Structure formats: C-alpha cells, structure tokens
Amino acid sequence: MTTALILSGTGRYADPWHPFAETSAAIADLLRGHGLTVETADDVDATLGSFRDSAAWPDLLVVNVGLPRDGGTSPGTDAARDGLDAWEAGGCPLLALHSSATSFVDSESWEAALGGRWVRDVSMHPEYGAANILLEGSFPVGIPDFTLDDERYSWLRTSPDVIVHARHEHEGHLHPLMWSLERPVGTGSARSFYDALGHDAASYSSPEHRELMKRAVDWLLG
C-alpha cells in the first residue's frame, strides 16, 4: 500500500491565519480517495528528526505548514534539519502546499526541493477572494480555467527549472501558482509539486483543483 505522511501546521508551525487542521484533513481525504494510506504527523520537528533513518520515509511526503511565529529556527532542531536534508538527498517525492513556501527558512535544501519560495518583503497576496486560475501546458489538458475563492500568492521566487501549470494575473503580471520540478539527486532525479492554493478547506471542494491534485499525485508517484 502506498503511504503518504502529512506534516501539518501544528504547534509552532501553526499560525492565526491558516486552518491547517481543516486543510490537512481535506488533502488527506483526497489522497485516501485516490487509494493512498495517509497519516498526519503531530510534531513536525520530531517527525523530520526521524527522517535521519530512511526507514521512516513515506512513499509521499506532504508538507502543509506555516512559518513559526516564535522567532526560532525553522526547522527547529539540528536533528530536524539533518532529517530534512537526508530525506531530500534520498530522492523521495514531495507535495508541498500553500504556506509551506514560507517555512523551513533555515534549511539550505528546502528551496531546492520545493523549486521556489516566498521571499519576505517581496512576496505578497491580494486579499482572499475570487481567484481566476489560468492553466497552461500539457499537465492540465482537459481541465478548463476556473475560479475559486482563495489566496493568490504573488512575486514568489522560482527556480528556472520548474514547469508552471497554473498562474493568476495581478498588477499586470502572471504569477505562478502551481509547478512541478524534477530535481537532481545524486546521479538521478526526484519529483516535487507545489500548489500555492489551499488557504482553506473550501479550496479543495473545487472539482478542477481536486483533479489537478490527483494528477499531481499520479505524476509524483510515477
């Protein structure tokens, strides 16, 4: 059975703006409906620390966390940083969601694994509301452009190696919202997919958004 582990925004990785318990439950429901066995971690740093042993790695790592507001490091311990580095070097697939692009700022490998990140004092989002999602490329073929209520992350920093699948328009610019990445690992490669949507659970009630996530999971797992 294919396993997925969700790192959810609990403890110091929670924040006042994101209902992580609800969004993690929504993505868990989607994954279970797609045939995966899903667990959700209660302690992000402890779980990352366990990744120093490859036996703890799931088939799919799903990251749905925020930036710790306590001013401490992120990841929060040496063991957690080492575990995240070991997991990234191991070539496992990654599905990262929404505010996860703001987190793990003290990990040199996180941005490389994600394919981009939120940049303080540069990145922003307009107020929560109707978002017109513009799809492109072969990945979303057959799915029409769609509208949903969500946050629209803008001015993210992205690697030139990512393939963008969805954008939105803000201030005359098209901003990437979903991308895939085949990242180099040793002599091979590993797969990542980032979805900047998903501020709340309602985002995952959009049939177009759900279908894109299912396709992302299929691609990630080969």
Automatic annotation (TrEMBL):
Residue ranges of every copy of the ThuA-like domain listed in the record: 18-219
A Pfam family annotated for this UniProt entry: ThuA
Upper lineage: Bacteria, Bacillati, Actinomycetota, Actinomycetes, Micrococcales
Classification via InterPro entries: Class_I_gatase-like, ThuA-like
Domain of life according to the entry: Bacteria
Protein's UniProt name: ThuA domain-containing protein
Gene3D superfamilies for the chain: 3.40.50.880
